[in-house]
Amino acid sequence: MKPHTIKDLICRPLHRVVVTSSMAGLASASSLFAAEGSLSLPAEWNFSKGVKSQDVAEVKWEKVQLPHTWNAEDASNGGGKDMQSRDGYYRGPAAYQASFKSAKSAIEGKRVFLKFEAVATVATSYLNGEKLGEHKGGFAAHTYEISKQLKADGENDLLVLANNEWREDVIPLSGDFPVFGGIYRPVHLIVKNEVCISPLIYGSDGVQIIQQNVSKENAELKVNVWVDNSLSKSAATELQFILRDAEGKQVAESKLDAEIPAGESKQVSSLVKLAKPHLWHGIDDPYLYQLEVKLSSAGKPIDQFEHAVGFRFYHIDAEKGFFLNGEPYRLFGVNRHQDFGGKGWAISEAEQDLDMELIREIGARSLRLAHYPHSRYFYDLCDREGLMVWAELPLVDCISDHPDFAENSKNQLREMILQNGNNSSIFTWSMFNEMYHRKSPPANDVLVALNKLSHELDPSRFTVGASNKNNKELNNCTDHLAMNKYPGWYGGGATGMPGSMKKHNESGNKRGIAISEYGAGASIHHHELELKRPKTKGNWHPEGWQAHVHEENYRSIAAAGYCWGSFVWNMFDFASVWRTEGDKDGINDKGLVTYDRKVRKDAFYYYKANWSKEPVVHLTAKRFVERDSQKTPVKVYSNCGEVTLLVNGEEVGKAKPDEVMITSWKDVELKKGKNTIEVRATRDGKQVTDTCEWIVK
């Protein structure tokens, strides 16, 4: 095979194909070959920490199931001292081993590939004692062809040496999150014909879908396909591109013939045109077509590919904000980290489904998937649910002078774009987060080069950076700019957001502004009547203060038309091994939902009242049960119009919510002992209520 150069990859392709796997198949994949179970990886793998070499004869193994991380517990227990998350939990080498059988009848005349969806952060793989390769980066897939190493009949031994040690040549170098080591996403065996759609280019699936010239009248898909030929002679192939609507009806088609030289991979391209497309319009109408790519030779099908496509076009107006399909569409949303209490990064589809259910419940329109590429399964969920996605490169806080650093950053950018660029929900590629937040060499040359490469690989999307600095040179490295700002938490009052936004919107090249992070910490066990800003590094993080910060911050954001997007930090509490604050060490408690996803904090309901189409009437401070004072404020989040307050069955008064859905009463009188608080509102002829019990000592 001829090697693929960087030049070969400019404006080139991708997507998915599978066959059998140790986990569930990839969401959009399909295969023509190998009966299920004829070639598969085991459910249980052997695992051992501390293994550095291929010599594992004396290793003591434990049984684990994938996905797996060795940091599920220690990365969220606290104890770290380094704010770059380089200590306080096990960062080092480990080994995974699995044996599997292959039948000659299943693979004869076929090619077999091994695909890892993610291994953190450096992985070296061996099959039957032969090195397959090394991959540097913990968030993207990588694939090897194992046709030559695979035993046609008999037992095959697969060994993976994984290592999450801090390295100055592999991003991220820093971040307010642990780097969970392990094979924490699924592993797949893929069986294909000798002439096939290639799965070998930067972990992609060999098909790239680029939307262009999309409008309410017309839409085009430029579809690039890599066809790979392992035969010793050239192969004549035919490619068919079929677009089907949501009901399965064929609405567009194109065809082409391609001669693939012996032993080479060739990129071919076609244009699929559609008149009067049904546009994908975010959460309001996430309409998806299905693109099929069929590869044939001599009239016989030899490979195929499928992917959902949502046609959309968008732009940012510096004064009026974000527009989707020509209509104003403010990107009110949240940030998400992929870790989950007790599981770390080794989450199943069920945990990802739960995250999506909570994000949809709150009514978010957009989602920043911080600070690294998330799983393909979750991007597919975003396509289906209509969330506009900010996808991010794991370039956090700083760069290094290591000679391989810039190339690793570029390589991880290539992987992110080529593996995930077919997902219509993604509207931007983020190049960095909070650059210079830690000591760093000058980063502008690296960022400018990454920005250039992003446009070469994907001309259809703009780039963005999330900054917390007033460095104009830094903030002009990407097409658009967003700022991480925390008025009311990291200094200043909760009402400081307007001045902060105005200042940054008038700097640089006046492109409009987004707030990529804002928020405050909160413990569901901490409550007080008289709200005041707590010490951020202290152990007292009252839930009421978090709600107050969000109320004032979002009030300002919603009123600023030039603010094209805002992303709450964070949707869920997450691990931060160096933090010693709030009610538990090792946790960043700025989430709207607890780390185990079991408790929605008051601020969650504030946004639900503002964003969701579902009726909301929510009494705040319900967890503040035991009180010393008989006078108390009562605050309600409601999108149901006039709210009636009752205390111990007696009506106290009625009030209408303000422009951000807040209704409140001051100095409500309680009695000694138990008090029943009830609020009522009516929407669409139905009464909506919420109740709680407060006890005055």
From TrEMBL:
BP terms from Gene Ontology: carbohydrate metabolic process
Domain DUF4982, chain residue ranges per copy: 630-688
Domain Beta-mannosidase-like galactose-binding: 95-168
Family in the record: Belongs to the glycosyl hydrolase 2 family.
Signal peptide: 1-34
Keyword Hydrolase: yes
Name of the protein: Glycoside hydrolase family 2 protein
Top-level taxon: Bacteria
Residues annotated as domain Glycoside hydrolase family 2 catalytic: 320-609
Organism: Persicirhabdus sediminis
Keyword annotations: Glycosidase, Hydrolase, Signal
Ranges where the Glycoside hydrolase family 2 immunoglobulin-like beta-sandwich domain occurs: 210-312
GO terms for MF: hydrolase activity, hydrolyzing O-glycosyl compounds
